């Protein structure tokens, strides 16, 4: 895996994507990468669906998250992690493939804010904008390459501490409100 000093190009970025087991499972392809932008393409498969036959929102969120982070990697380098993102679903996704294009809106040396559009495409038809997302990606100073000492999930959580995440916000938990409920807690209801 690349180190912080490594500059990512399309070929190396594709290697990073190929190293993600979930990306391989979903069938993600990186088609564009560089100059503050990245595009991912996923051929829609029946396994990507939800109960109504549309692409599951989790697949759309995964694609947005990954595209946002890859776009940020073009300006921050390879050791980046998602700090957070929001996604808004505009309409159901269906068709032959998803095309997710992300661009960096602004960046510092340590973080980038990115935007992406998620389109469902079918050959011969206009692409349909299904979702939009925006997120923050942070450069991590620690080398994220796997090592022999890691636990079974491939990541040694014990080796990470707050110093590994630049500009991490510190919150005093005494300032957070605690909500308690008196009486029985009822399960959520579904209206029809």
Automatic annotation (TrEMBL):
<protein>
    <recommendedName>
        <fullName>Medium/long-chain acyl-CoA thioesterase YigI</fullName>
        <ecNumber>3.1.2.20</ecNumber>
    </recommendedName>
</protein>
<dbReference type="Pfam" id="PF03061">
    <property type="entry name" value="4HBT"/>
</dbReference>
<feature type="region of interest" description="Disordered">
    <location>
        <begin position="140"/>
        <end position="192"/>
    </location>
</feature>
<feature type="domain" description="Thioesterase">
    <location>
        <begin position="52"/>
        <end position="125"/>
    </location>
</feature>
<dbReference type="InterPro" id="IPR029069">
    <property type="entry name" value="HotDog_dom_sf"/>
</dbReference>
<keyword id="KW-0378">Hydrolase</keyword>
<dbReference type="InterPro" id="IPR006683">
    <property type="entry name" value="Thioestr_dom"/>
</dbReference>
<dbReference type="InterPro" id="IPR003736">
    <property type="entry name" value="PAAI_dom"/>
</dbReference>
<dbReference type="GO" id="GO:0047617">
    <property type="term" value="F:fatty acyl-CoA hydrolase activity"/>
</dbReference>
<feature type="compositionally biased region" description="Acidic residues">
    <location>
        <begin position="148"/>
        <end position="173"/>
    </location>
</feature>
<comment type="similarity">
    <text>Belongs to the YigI thioesterase family.</text>
</comment>
